[in-house]
Amino acid sequence: QVQLQESGPGLVKSSETLSLTCTVSGGSISSFYWSWIRQPPGKGLEWIGYIYYSGSTNYNPSLKSRVTISVDTSKNQFSLKLSSLTAADTAVYYCARVRRDDYNGAPAHFDYWGQGTLVTVSS
Amino acid sequence: QSVLTQPPSVSGAPGQRVTISCTGSSSNIGAGYDVHWYQQLPGAAPKLLIYGNTNRPSGVPDRFSGSKSGTSASLAITGLQAVDEADYYCQSYDSSLSGSGVFGGGTRLTVL
Asked: What strands, in cross-sheet order, belong to the sheet with A77-82?
């Protein structure tokens, strides 16, 4: 059974950079897309970006200038960096595995999720 | 403003059937990209409920079903139970937004 676990600081300061890591166990990080998704308190889900195990990425246009997602296949981990933080970035951050569309190869659904980690941005 | 539009809330009595709609556009659902549905219980991570418009992962009861037509999709829940009270999200892929994953705004299901 594939399991994902987010790790990183729960409190970060405004204007600084958030760094989170997702550790994948029970399966290889290879041959899949992986993603970060966030959820502000009391609000809906927001997709942040994808990374393929080879390192190619795709980001939410609204966050693209501040986001970097990277992968370390040797550690079976992928990571998120989000810079220039504001209070609006306060959210539960989830990592997830992405399955591809069988017909066009595009990223499709998120089949395994981490439990999520709450990140609070303080001033 | 979410790319995919869902009603904020729906409700139904135990045993009833409810549906949740998800409306997109010609660059996502209407372009042929699949719709997927997630259930989020209070305080928990989202869980995949329906993938590829109509498919249920192993372990998801057949009370849950999905459909898609044109630029919209729907999630139907029959034989409503108290344990179904949760937030439900649709999700697809949008080719106009640099190849983005997109979610609906979510629908809160209340079992009366």
From this structure: A3-7, A18-25, A77-82, A67-72
Cβ neighbors of A109 (< 8 A, separation 6 or more) are A98, A99, B34, B36, B48, B51, B52, B91
Nearest chain A residue to B55 by CA distance is A109
Instruction: Kindly state whether B112 is in contact with chain A, defined as any CB-CB distance less than 8 angstroms.
Output: no
A122: which 2 tokens?
């303080």
Across the interface, do A47 and B47 touch by the CB < 8 Å criterion? no
Q: Tens digits of per-residue pLDDT, B4-36?
A: 999 999 999 999 999 999 999 999 999 999 999
φ/ψ (deg, to 5) at A21: -125, 140
Nearest to A90 by CA among A39, A32, A17, A19: A39
* CA-based nearest residue to A37, from A59, A56, A53, A15: A59
